[in-house]
Amino acid sequence: MEGCVLPENLIFEVLSRLPVKTITRCKCVCKKWRDLVSDTYFVHLHLSRSPPCLMFHWYLPILDRILELVEVEHEAEYDRLTLHHVKTLNLQLSAFRASNGIIQVGSVNGLICLCHTFDATYVFNPVLEEYMTLPRPPRLRNITLLGHGFGVSMAGEYKVIRTLGRSISQVPIEVSVEIQVYTFGTDQWRSLGPTPFNITHPGEVGGVFVNSHVYWVIFGQIFDFDLDAETFELNPSPPGYDTESKRMLGVLKGSCLSLFSWTSLGFTVWVMKGESWYKAIAMIEENMDPVLKSLEWKPVYLIDGSDGTSILIFWPQGTDSLEADCLDTNKILDLNLPGNFWTVMSTYRPSFVKLQNFGSFRVHSLYGNDSAFVKDRYKSSLKLERMHQTSFHV
């Protein structure tokens, strides 16, 4: 009917269920729709419905710093993982010109945190193509960087955490743990001082964010930083846990901290509910797939599959591709995805959360306004488009 105007709540309901690419196009329809997509209510509504994606670095000779965002579909009846392309970012063409020293810290509510060791830290939203640079943390003498974390507290404060090690002895390399925290909107790093823990330095460890906590596993011990209380504690290990096994933290069953441990004799998946661990999956050597039994592989990431299953994505040594195993059924899944020893994955959920909301004066366009950026980005997109046609569904 002529002159008919849809009510805003109906527009919100429709737009919030559309793919990000479609919503971005809808912003160009008219000023009203652009304003609606920027509305705080819509941002939260869309985020609550935004499907989880995988975010991973792709290290390739011609494309050094590629960050891929894909949706994952587990087709259990075909023993297959199908990847649907969401967005590709060439970080070398971004305004902060990511170099080979960049580290993927993590992603929360559509915001991605990257950093250079003992240098700049960046947070960006790939949907809105904007980023901000955090101030450089103060340099401290006799300090080693142990790891990073990124998360949001129950109070809604976004924080980046740095775990530092102050040297105690050289043989073995033992350090005392200290914590630095950056809270969005404050424009400064805060030192929380020393913790009561001394550890043998394992090299840099990435943190896993779960429900206002960031966790690290270091030499078989699980450490927990509470983003609200800002405390660093030793978390209880699962009962009967084999400290000699290799291990990796992840998130399964929607939003539960999980621990994947393995040896040549088998593997176990532990899931934390409340404050207790329970054994979700246990596989003995006789039933393991020959590829996993060999131990000539590196775990990359844990994800939820269909029907409550759990999937391990891993890299078989000596190959240039990743593979996936449904841990519940012990079946290798068809996965057409390049990868290598340095491939890093984490979960990403597309959103329209604006960095300006945090009152930062450091927000910039991810690709800048320089025509050279635009030209280089266009050339890169053509290469990536050809690559997608042979790698996964676009």
Automatic annotation (TrEMBL):
Superkingdom of this protein's organism: Eukaryota
Pfam families: F-box, FBA_1
Residue intervals of the F-box domain: 1-45
InterPro entries: F-box-assoc_dom_typ1, F-box-assoc_interact_dom, F-box-like_dom_sf, F-box_dom, SCF_F-box_component
PANTHER family: BNACNNG10540D PROTEIN, F-BOX PROTEIN CPR30-LIKE
NCBIfam families (UniProt xref): F_box_assoc_1
Name under which the protein is recorded: F-box domain-containing protein
Organism: Helianthus annuus
